[in-house]
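Exercise 7 asks you to align residues with tokens for two separate proteins.
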Amino acid sequence: MKLATDSLTPVHWLAIGLAALSGAIHLVLAIIVPIPALRVGFLLAGGGFFCGIALVLANYRRTVLYAVGIPFTGGQIVLWYVLVGPTPATIELLDAIDKLAQVVLLGLLVLLYVRKR
């Protein structure tokens, strides 16, 4: 795979960093969560973030990746809310960091898609 990073903007790099953070958190959760079905889900989610990063770095159909990344990232937030049922008193630090990263990533993906760059 040949990297094509010359066309990446600071917005791209911030989005890549946030996706890597969320992907890493999901891979850690895949190791520490005791429920096998959730482990698989965390593994797939983490892998999805890192595959997306690799494809963006390779300049593979970036506009399509942004369009796919929007529901993928938004789905992570919705699934967390449905499965965890968080309240301000029950949100763990790792969850807060991950969800904040995902909300900002979601906004950046929308911006990149609208700009088509």
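Second protein for Exercise 7:
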Amino acid sequence: MIGKRLAWMSFILVGALAQSGAAQAQAPIKFGFVSSLSGPFTIWGIQVRDGMKMAMEELNAKGGALGRKFEMVERDDKNNPNEGITAFQYMVEREGIVAAGGMISSDVGLAVSRQAESLQVPYFLTMSGSHVILKKSSRYTFRTCLPAAPENMGAIASMIKEKKITRVGVIVADYAWGHSLREAVETLIKPIPGLTLQIEVAPVPEKDFTPYLRKLQGMNPELIIATGHPPGVPTITRQAIELGMKTQIIGPWYPTEFMVQRVGDMMFDRYVDYSCVDFESPAYKVLAEKYNVTYKRLFDNNAFSGYVMVKMVADAIERSRSVDPKVVAEAIRKGSYDQPGYGWPLAYTEWGEMKGAKPILYTYEKGDPGKANAGAAWRPKVIFRTPAVEPYVPKD
């Protein structure tokens, strides 16, 4: 009798363990979205989030990764470093995320990056281009779209030399990205022979840039670099044109569709920006059409960044056969991911800078964009493909 009871208890225990294992195998893989859904970077954050959602929907339709579906954990950093840290820590310790991403603000990106390194969980930047975010010791923070500030200014310096521009105005925001960009301008652009340069610094939430533009107006700039003030770029562009300034404005990887909405027709042929999206790629157009059907918006830098970071993590999980964040991070550092339609394959230095990034410069033109942006009367137009830029090497 005792033997039968022991056998029965063993059967129950084995069955319970089997059920537990099966349940664990079917538990979702959680991916965190921690970025701005309020404040000055909201329009960037919304696009990143929705790009992530589309990637997860595609993956889940095919069974996910290792037979497990993906699930998004979503938090608003409110453009506040402490909020970002708290949100990321909650996701790691309470939700068990395998990775998180989507950061826009450099101030918040810097703070959360330090937390990601401490907790040893992969963390992906969409924007957050401050060059001080990554250190040589970084192993869990990765860029996906925007290169570090000096790499952006290197491209503009080449254009200034090629076009023989002699008068350049600069407006930067008073926060980490703006200061990184100012440093890069002073290092890479100021020394250009024969160049007159003037830099103005404005608060991040500034709404009226007329005083700053009037200061620049006296030098009659041929080019205004507004890359260092992302939230203010639409206003800077519009007010510069309204003041009668015959200058071209360089943007900060601004959400493509929203730039048109905020500035209007006056921006055509006057505004140029960067992209990690290859707008001319047939593969991009397929994804853009799909995104537009669901979200009624253009599949831009930010949406594609959110999409590709999820796909890259899924690829790393499949290759490493693990959902351990440490293993996933190592697989990403040592591998590469080539997403059709993206501007370049994603491969990394040991500290998380992109190898071989090739920012694409584009402008806007009137015309039918087709199903990629149904109903619009304009489309992005690629005007320059930069050669691969050297990854930024941190000083420490």
